[in-house]
Amino acid sequence: MRVSMDIELKDVPGQMLLALQPLSEFKANLITVLHHHQKRTPRKTIPVQLVLEIKPENIEAIKAKLEENGIKVVRVGEHRFRESINVVLIGHVVHTGIQDTIDEIDKTGFAEIVDISLSMPGINLLSSALIRIDAVGKEDLQKALDILKKVSARKDLLMVLPIDIQA
Amino acid sequence: MKTVRCSILGFGAIGQGVAEVLLMKKEYLESIGLEVLVVAVVDSKGATVNPEGVDLADCLARKRTVGTVAIEKLTGVEIIRSIAHELVIETTPTNIVTGGVGLQNMFTAFETGKDVVTSNKGPLTLKYRELMEAAKAAGSNFRFEATVGGSMPVINLANEVLAGNQLKSIKGILNGTCNYILTRMLEERASYKDILTESMELGIAETDPTYDVEGIDTACKLVILANAIFGRDATYKDVEVTGITKITPEALEMAYERGHVIKLIGEVSRERIHVAPRLVPINHPLAVRGILNVASIDTELAGEITVTGKGAGPIETASAVLSDLVAIYGNR
């Protein structure tokens, strides 16, 4: 999951190292660092904004470790679901368990099915569904599509993907 | 004036289209210093031969009234071996299982040092490398623009006009029948079966439409592009193929409401060859309607270049044959 984190560093040497060490320890991938040296807080500390790629279960541990190192964590905000695509499914979408299809994606934690349009013209006819998948990032979206591809193959559903996605 | 003696092997729709275009373009060809003399026309029943040049108008008239041009019981291979000429125009029907007579015609042409221009996908899908090697060993020219996208110049555009550009991928609609069916299904909100029947009645789909609707025709064209443009040694087995037979009017409509059309898209790069129905934004250059074909070439230096045109039709396909002929003999 991608999260933003606002921290405050004391204006003494070695503080940045203390901030980055817990991130490395918990294998967080640092995407951006904005170091606002000119914008001191009333407490004379230096605000720093971080964006991290991180496992959700490690957030609290990182926070605790930073606080232990004397670094104030002001805010942690999740950047969820930045990518979104539509996918068409054709086949016996409902009879093969639509809830199960949704669950397979939702349980990943990094992607969700957020909208479904469904058309069932007749009991023996193929139904069609247009689903929207939101995901945290591009890679997560691709992972969600790989899962959907396996589910579709198992349920004999035709999956129609957007042209700009690796099929 | 340079005289190019040629044979037309296969006198179905495409072969007849070539004959018509040669008649139509006689003056143009002469203006660039070429006299194209057809010394033999062959169909499945036999041949008309005249080393001084057959009467193409007469061949067309006889084909349309009698159903054949056959005067002598000669095959393409016999013509290639026995009649002096430089160029074999190979327009026999595509057979992707065995290569059909086209494969024999092409190998025989190269054995005897002749040039080949063809519209026949089968031999190129099956034996691309062997054919190229045979052509090279013989010092023969071998051109096949008409095998992919009819009149739409893809191969020559990529290999000649865009020479020097590294090409990343080609994506497009390479089968007019599928495009027609999907376009009509959306417009009429009609089932796949209904529109397929309509397409057969209009002669847009073949009596056996399997090659088109299962994506096989598109896959074969991609194999040719993979080999001719991306330097691969691919065959049909290397293509992941999904056709359009499962597409429903409801799916088309739902996609359309969200700004997309569903198209059968073929995609080829150095890494993969893939055919499947895809969601294409309505305003995307690949969202062409009806029987049109379209190809978008992603290039290193020039970005995406998209061409569109009629993918089939005797005269349109013959236009690609003509351009290949001029490319070989026009500037020598």
Automatic annotation (TrEMBL), chain A:
InterPro entries: ACT_ThrD-II-like. This is ACT-domain-containing protein, predicted allosteric regulator of homoserine dehydrogenase.
TrEMBL record, chain B:
Pathway: Amino-acid biosynthesis; L-threonine biosynthesis; L-threonine from L-aspartate: step 3/5; Amino-acid biosynthesis; L-methionine biosynthesis via de novo pathway; L-homoserine from L-aspartate: step 3/3. Its EC number is 1.1.1.3. InterPro entries: Asp/hSer_DH_NAD-bd (IPR005106), HDH_cat (IPR001342), HDH_short (IPR022697), NAD(P)-bd_dom_sf (IPR036291). NADP(+) binds at G10, F11, G12, A13, I14, G15. Pfam families: Homoserine_dh (PF00742), NAD_binding_3 (PF03447). It comes from the Archaea. The active site is at K221 (proton donor). NADPH binds at K121. One of its GO terms (molecular function) is NADP binding. Transmembrane segments: none annotated. SUPFAM superfamilies: Glyceraldehyde-3-phosphate dehydrogenase-like, C-terminal domain, NAD(P)-binding Rossmann-fold domains. Residues 10-145 form the Aspartate/homoserine dehydrogenase NAD-binding domain. One of its GO terms (biological process) is methionine biosynthetic process. Keywords: Amino-acid biosynthesis, Methionine biosynthesis, NADP, Oxidoreductase, Threonine biosynthesis. L-homoserine binds at E206. Residues 153-326 form the Homoserine dehydrogenase catalytic domain. Belongs to the homoserine dehydrogenase family. PANTHER family: HOMOSERINE DEHYDROGENASE (PTHR43331). This is Homoserine dehydrogenase. The lineage of its organism: Archaea, Methanobacteriati, Methanobacteriota, Stenosarchaea group, Methanomicrobia.
